[in-house]
């Protein structure tokens, strides 16, 4: 065989392998790209009332999501995504419920679902004092250097993303000693704008678990009540291990390629059930593995504990409306279970109210809504979490309380803990400084820096 023929055959084999890989990758990745774009475009349009061009430019411009094409249909309140005409995925909007990807169930079956949601009280929040309403006192404590604080907020709003591009910070809010002392919004956004929390949703889900724990319906130390786990190797997984991300399930939280996380969020109709069926990889309680799947199992447990008839209203009636968090909207998957890992929308002020609930040890307006030891347990890392950076669906500042260099945020006190979402959606709670700091945007910025500057504003 001549050299030319050998080269030709080798090149042909390489091209064939590349083509096969391309087809395999497209088969797995294109539906996820379409689903991600369709779902987030739909929620931005129908919940935030934004223009498609803005969403494409700010949220959907990164590769490979930028390969997608997203078509708005105002007649049936939907967005359909595809990649070069392939892998079409549809997200539908339902008033009061938000947007849901059509997966596993038919669109007709999903649209026929009924959610019995509680009404929001008819009142003018601008006439009611914060935090029960939106009327601010206008006075700033003498312990706050207003010039330093304003500069800190300005810097945070203008800071570039960690990769050097625009961060699209939409809201920045500072609460000191229970009162709003600083607040700024990007053009087109204001105190009434609802914004996605992404994985802040995990912390919200954990709080609802806390409500059920206080009511005696759940026990964190008991085996998690997951029907599929009875008489299996997973039956000893505890509720606490789900909360602390040490369930041991074989789950990968990777968004750069197809994984359990992307398949769950964009390919499955019942996300909690999908994750519950995964095999064990580690002995429960022995390995920390951050997992949106664990949060969706928790959300499904809430549904099973409450029962279908009252489930849709329960998180609002039992907790979020009690803390005057009236803008909050929890989006469900196709099965009707709230996506406890990822899809919550609220104003910056309402996310601040949630932070204030934890800052006040689960107390609101004289009522103990969470167990008295819930926050204390929330900020305890599991023994398996070697970096000591995670509690009950909240992140912690990390390893060494005496050596700032070993903390996650070296310029922030060791007692800081926070709810954190994709792209830098953050509720930072710093009890020792009497601070709650909210940042909402599209891309992550240098959080240690802006927290350091806010802290410097306290005399």
From TrEMBL:
InterPro entries referenced in this protein's UniProt entry, alphabetically = Beta-lactam-related (IPR001466), Beta-lactam/transpept-like (IPR012338), Diverse_Enzym_Activities (IPR050789)
Q: Where is the Beta-lactamase-related domain?
A: 171-440
Question: What is the recorded name of this protein?
Answer: Beta-lactamase-related domain-containing protein
Protein's organism? Niastella vici
């Amino acid at each position: 065989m001549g050299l030319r023929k050998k080269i030709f055959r080798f090149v042909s084999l390489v091209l064939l392998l590349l083509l096969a890989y391309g087809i395999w990758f497209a088969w797995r990745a294109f539906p996820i790209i379409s689903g991600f774009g369709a779902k987030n475009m739909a929620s931005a349009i129908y919940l935030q009332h934004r223009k498609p061009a803005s969403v494409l430019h700010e949220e959907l411009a990164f590769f490979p999501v930028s390969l997608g094409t997203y078509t708005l249909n105002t007649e049936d309140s939907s967005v359909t995504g595809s990649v070069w005409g392939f892998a079409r995925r549809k997200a539908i909007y339902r008033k009061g419920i938000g947007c849901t990807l059509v997966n596993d169930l038919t669109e007709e079956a999903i649209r026929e679902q009924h959610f019995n949601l509680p009404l929001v009280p008819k009142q003018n929040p601008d006439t009611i004092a914060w935090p029960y309403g939106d009327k601010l006192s206008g006075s700033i404590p003498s312990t706050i250097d207003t010039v330093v604080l304003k500069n800190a907020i300005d810097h945070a709003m203008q800071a570039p993303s960690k990769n050097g591009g625009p961060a699209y910070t939409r809201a920045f809010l500072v609460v000191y000693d229970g009162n709003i002392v600083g607040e700024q919004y990007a053009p087109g956004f204001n105190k009434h704008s609802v914004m996605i929390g992404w994985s802040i949703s995990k912390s919200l889900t954990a709080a609802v678990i806390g409500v059920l724990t206080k009511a005696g319906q759940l026990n964190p130390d008991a085996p998690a009540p997951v029907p599929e786990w009875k008489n299996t190797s997973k039956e000893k997984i505890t509720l606490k291990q789900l909360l602390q991300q040490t369930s041991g399930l074989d789950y990968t939280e990777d968004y750069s390629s197809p994984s359990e996380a992307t398949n769950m969020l964009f390919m499955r109709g019942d996300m909690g059930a999908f994750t519950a069926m995964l095999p064990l990889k580690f002995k429960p309680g022995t390995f920390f593995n951050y997992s949106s799947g664990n949060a969706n199992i928790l959300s499904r447990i809430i549904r099973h504990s409450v029962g279908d008839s009252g489930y849709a209203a329960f998180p609002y009636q039992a907790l979020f409306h009690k803390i005057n968090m009236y803008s909050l909207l929890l989006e469900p998957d196709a099965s009707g279970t709230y996506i406890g890992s990822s899809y919550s929308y609220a104003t910056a002020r309402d996310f601040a109210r949630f932070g204030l609930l934890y800052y006040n040890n689960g107390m609101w307006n004289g009522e103990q809504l969470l167990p008295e030891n819930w926050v204390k347990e929330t900020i305890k890392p599991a023994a398996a979490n070697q970096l000591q950076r995670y509690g009950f669906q909240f992140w912690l500042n990390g390893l060494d309380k005496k050596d700032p260099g070993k903390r996650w945020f070296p310029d922030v006190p060791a007692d800081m803990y926070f709810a954190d979402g994709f792209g830098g959606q953050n509720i930072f709670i710093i009890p020792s400084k009497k601070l709650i700091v909210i940042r909402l945007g599209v891309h992550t910025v240098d959080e240690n820096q802006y927290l350091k500057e806010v802290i410097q504003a306290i005399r």
